[in-house]
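Researcher: Re-running this chain for the archive, since the previous output was lost when a drive failed. Same request as before.
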Amino acid sequence: MRKIATILALAGLLAILGSQDTLAGKKPAKGSPSNRPVMLIDSVIVNDTIIRLGDIFTNTGKKSEIAVAYAPGPGQTSNLDANWLYRVANAYKLKWRPLSIRERVIVQRESVIITREEIEDRILAALIDKGADPKSTVELSNRLMRIHVAGGLAATIKVEDVIFELRMKRFTAVLVATGTSSPAQRTRVTGRVHKILNVPVLSSRLKPGDIIRKHHVTWIKVRAERLQRDIILSEAGLVGMASKRGLLAETPLRNSDVRRPILVAKNSLVTLELSLPGMKLTAQGKALDDGAKGDTVRIHNSRSKNTVEGVVVGDGKVRVHMAKRIALN
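Model: Regenerated structure tokens:
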């Protein structure tokens, strides 16, 4: 009896150890049947031209490499519905059937995306050889265009059969995209070429009368055909100037938006200067006009009660013409 009890105890211990191995995820011994159920994989990404049985079902064993359908094109998706899946499972004797007619598998083909920006850069390089201005940009007719290529990082794109109408700035070309695991894709594209100018603009808003300093200026790229004729195109045209009105940031400015800073304000007191050989005469007067540096303004001499004209030479300073020197007396 003691021997029988010992044998039963060992058998129980082996059963417990076997169940622990199963819970620990250990595979059953080679050649032993698996009782795992066949399950549907409802979302799949493949990197091949075919879909295999093991891509859409779990626990298919040696049948996993069987090809059952063509994969969609690079970057595209396809839907495998419940009826089709059941027929495939039945054909290969898999113990699976749909729980609902709505069950499906979504298969997506892996790809490398060649973006519109990369496409435009390649086309511009080809158009420069045809006479396009290097300071140009390319605009594709299809602004949402991008190309999916299979083959991982080895995907490449070339531009062929370029036709460029220099006067109209229009082009046509053929893009040839290739990958290591897919044949070449040929895509015809059309578009236009636009000349680009660097334009100085303000980095922040300014109030009327504010002086534009160098740190206020930044640069943006703008299509030449979108600019008006009087747009300021140089930094020198802005720095040191004053705003005539409130000015917005990041907006091209016209010559009429700015002016030289007012150094002499109307109705303000100014110093009249007259230089003679060996002497310098000064007097005080009241400005009758606004004036920037170099402007000629009228000044009322408070001593002589005369009105003279002078040239603004500094902040609150006006130099009187020699012909008007008598007005200082």
